[in-house]
Every structure is written in structure tokens, then in C-alpha cells.
Design a protein that fits this description.
Blueprint lengths: L7 H4 L1 H12 L5 E6 L6 H16 L2 E6 L4 H14 L8 H17 L6 E5 L16 E4 L9 H11 L4 E4 L12 E4 L16 H10 L8 E5 L8 H14 L3 E5 L9 H11 L1 H5 L3 E4 L4 H10 L2 E4 L8 H8 L4 E4 L4 H4 L7 E3 L4 H13 L1 H18 L2 H20 L1
Parallel strand pairs: 1-2, 1-3, 3-4, 4-5, 5-6, 7-8, 7-10, 8-9, 10-11, 11-12
Helix pairs in contact: 2-16, 4-5, 7-11, 8-14
This protein binds uridine-5'-diphosphate.
Uridine-5'-diphosphate binds next to helix 3, helix 11 and helix 12.
């Protein structure tokens, strides 16, 4: 099990001490997290670390997964897209399937915890099917700055029953939501296989085991095959970069269980660049392997994150932690993660030339890349590690439990 003390050498004793002190008020409190996938995507990534660390601090944390099927996840993926602004034809059948999945889960999942934390829209309606006797918190990891109004209005019907909504950025707070809101920015865990420090020699050895050559600079995007992550845009950028500098592109995107659109987008990418895949200039990876993600982030010359929407990009923070310069879209939560020109570069999401120029600049100037990478790691260390998230959660839980009693 993960232990808090394992993090002493990374964040220092003062922070670990602060966590133990804050946790005292919450000893034995039973905290339940519910989301909709164990694997794939940022939420599963965070819960894999957060739940055991809450336990290590003295709380009783539990993590359950809403059992979904293709129908449900097809609908909730549309909800996800639509919360990020896309149109949706919200039918009665969709609502029925959504509600039914939550009702079915409630029929066998006992909830008698002290606090319930629901992640994202999939399990949001669960609150309808329990006698509420504790704080229920909705933790939304999605960019809510411009949701489709019809869908938002429908989901709001559930959210208003919650005690608190947590979002990742001030821009996502909703004025029309009569529920307290709190901002907690997502983080990474420096001790997972995905983020653990490796020497360049170790990382290079691992890469060769995964059949990824390092004879040329590598440009990488690590993201689900998702239209909002714009893999086709990354390919356009790669083509422009290659006019100036010989390099290889790796698109690494495992398929999340609750994301049925991934296969379609992957097929589209393959169709468009069959020749580049054949020649080995572009490598597509669809399996889940944390060590591979780690070494790719470390060994890439530049990591790109060409999102069109991004609640908060964990992949950005992961690469920064490995001192790899990141060129990313100026959208959603990413500007909170990167200070343009200091510890990475931000580019307008539609500016293909701008992206290509920054990538070329970093590939041609290793000293600049090193300086940016050093600052990136410092930034992550001070703001975006799991210990900071744990402190935010402890503060939040203490407040909510007190508010519930008063
Ligand atoms: N991820 C992974 N393998 C992949 C693609 C993504 O392990 O092939 C991980 C990635 O390292 C990160 C998470 O999935 O930890 C994605 O989180 P992010 O916030 O970047 O995007 P989301 O998928 O939540 O929109």
C-alpha cells in the first residue's frame, strides 16, 4: 500500500507533518469515492493514488465503480462532449438508460459512509436512490465554462441536491448553481510507475523494449483517441515540423472503458496516415502501460498537448515533472499549469503553424529545452503533487463534516 512517509524525500517533512495534523480531525471517517472506470483517463489515475493515501493518513477511504455498459457510456460520453459545448439531442430514452444504470447500482451498493464523493456525470443521479444522511460532493473534472444549456439544466436537477461541487478552475464555477463551489486543481503522483524517476539510460532501455527507436527526436502526445485531444491536428503539426527537422511522432492513447468513441477516432487517424505508420515515422500505441507513458514522457524531445478543450491536462503535468518541455493549447485548465515562455509554451489551439514553430524551436535549441524543463519540474513540485491534493481534500472534508453537523 502507498504510505505517506514514502513521499518525505520528495516533498519534505513539513508537508507530510501538515497532512498528519490535518488528518487527526478525520480519523476513521469513511469516505466513499464513486466514478465510472478503474482504468484510463485522469480520474482513475488520481483515485488510484488518492484513496490509498487517504487511508494511510488515517481515514477510511473506499472507491467503487459504477457498473456501466456500452449504452450507458455512449450516452455519458455525449454528456461529456455536450458539457464542453457540443449540441446534444437529449432524448427520453437516453435519460432512461442513464437513470436506470444508477438505480441498478444503488440496488446492490450499500452506502453508509460519512461522506460520498461522486466523480463526473456518470454516477451523478445516484443521489436520487439513497436516503441522504451525509454530505454528498460532486467532483467535476470537466470544463464547465460553456456547457450545452439543455443538458446542463437537466444535470443541474441532480447537482442541486449535492452539498458541494468541486471544479478544477475558477472559470468552471457556475453562477447559476445554487450549491457551494470549490476549486481543487488536479495533481500527479510522483511515486507511481508512470512518474517514478528513471535515469536516461534506464528510460532508453525501456523504450527499446517497446520498439520505439531513439535515432531521431521524438514528438509525443499521450492522450485518449478523442476529438477534443485533436490527434489529427497533432499530425498536421508533425508534418510541418518535419519540413524543418527530421523527427518521429508517437501518439499514445489507451482506450478508456467509459469512452466508446476512441476506436472510431483511432481508425480515422490510421486511415489518414497509413503511409507514415507504414514507414515508422508515426507510431500509434493503444495499449495501457504506465511505464511506457513514463519513458515516453521522459525521452521525448517535446511533448505536445493539442487539446481543443481540457478541464485540466494531467499529461501536461506528467511531462513537466520529467523536465520535458511541453507545447500545449491555451485552453481550459492548461494555462494554470504552464506559464507561457517560462516553463512551457502555450499556443492558440487552432494555430498549427504556431505549434510547429515552438516545437522546432525547442528541438533546435536544447539549452532552451533544458531551461524550460527545469522550471517545469519546479512548478509541478510546488503546486501539482498528490500531497497537495490530499491537503485540499482534508480541508474540504473537515469543512463539509462540520457544516453537516451545524
Ligand atoms: N494515459 C495513459 N495511457 C494512455 C493515455 C493516457 O496512461 O495511453 C493517462 C495519462 O498519462 C494521464 C491520464 O491518462 O494520467 C489522462 O489524463 P488527462 O487529464 O490528461 O486527460 P483525460 O483523459 O482525463 O481527459
Amino acid at each position: 500500500m502507498k504510505r505517506l512517509s514514502d513521499y518525505r524525500t520528495i516533498v519534505g517533512d513539513a508537508i507530510i507533518g501538515e497532512i498528519y495534523q490535518k488528518a487527526k480531525k478525520l480519523y476513521g471517517k469513511r469516505i466513499l469515492h464513486i466514478n465510472s472506470t478503474f482504468i484510463g483517463g485522469g480520474v482513475a489515475e488520481i483515485l488510484t493514488s488518492l484513496a490509498p493515501l487517504m487511508n494511510s493518513a488515517g481515514l477510511d477511504a473506499d472507491w467503487r465503480v459504477l457498473h456501466g455498459n456500452t449504452d450507458l457510456f455512449g450516452i455519458t460520453k455525449q454528456f461529456h462532449n455536450s458539457l464542453q459545448g457540443e449540441d446534444v439531442d437529449l432524448t427520453d430514452l437516453m435519460k432512461k438508460i442513464y437513470i436506470q444504470a444508477n438505480e441498478n447500482f444503488a440496488a446492490y451498493a450499500l452506502i453508509d459512509h460519512d461522506v460520498v464523493i461522486i466523480h463526473d456525470p456518470q454516477p451523478l443521479p445516484l443521489i436520487e436512490f439513497y436516503k441522504k444522511s451525509q454530505p454528498w460532493i460532486w467532483r467535476c473534472h470537466i470544463d464547465l465554462s460553456n456547457p450545452n444549456e439543455t443538458l446542463w439544466d437537466y444535470l443541474k436537477g441532480f447537482i442541486i441536491k449535492y452539498d458541494l461541487a468541486i471544479v478544477s478552475s475558477e472559470q468552471y464555477e457556475r453562477k447559476d448553481l445554487p450549491v457551494r463551489q470549490r476549486i481543487i486543481q488536479p495533481v500527479i503522483d510522483p511515486l507511481t510507475r508512470k512518474n517514478i524517476g528513471l535515469t536516461d539510460v534506464e528510460a532508453a532501455e525501456h523504450l527499446s523494449k517497446f520498439d520505439i527507436p531513439i535515432d531521431k527526436p521524438i514528438l509525443t502526445q499521450i492522450s485518449r483517441f478523442d476529438k477534443w485531444k485533436d490527434p489529427l491536428g497533432v499530425i498536421e503539426i508533425f508534418k510541418k515540423v518535419r519540413e524543418k527537422i527530421d523527427c518521429r511522432l508517437v501518439l499514445c492513447g489507451s482506450m478508456a472503458m467509459d469512452d466508446p468513441e476512441g476506436v472510431e477516432i483511432y481508425d480515422e487517424v490510421r486511415r489518414q496516415i497509413g503511409d507514415l505508420i507504414e514507414s515508422g515515422d508515426v507510431i500509434l500505441i493503444t495499449y495501457e502501460n504506465s511505464l511506457l507513458v513514463n519513458v515516453l514522457q521522459q525521452m521525448s524531445t517535446v511533448v505536445i498537448q493539442k487539446s481543443l478543450r481540457e478541464g485540466f491536462g494531467l499529461t501536461v503535468t506528467e511531462a513537466m515533472w520529467k523536465k520535458t518541455p511541453v507545447v500545449a493549447s491555451r485552453v481550459g485548465g492548461i494555462p494554470l499549469q504552464i506559464t507561457d515562455g517560462e516553463d512551457g509554451f502555450l499556443v492558440e489551439p487552432t494555430d498549427i503553424d504556431g505549434f510547429a514553430d515552438r516545437v522546432v524551436e525547442l528541438m533546435k535549441h536544447p539549452k532552451l529545452a533544458t531551461e524550460i524543463g527545469e522550471k517545469a519540474k519546479e512548478n509541478v513540485k510546488s503546486k501539482f503533487l498528490i500531497t497537495r491534493l490530499l491537503i485540499d481534500y482534508l480541508d474540504m472534508l473537515d469543512y463539509e463534516l462540520k457544516a453537516c453537523r451545524s
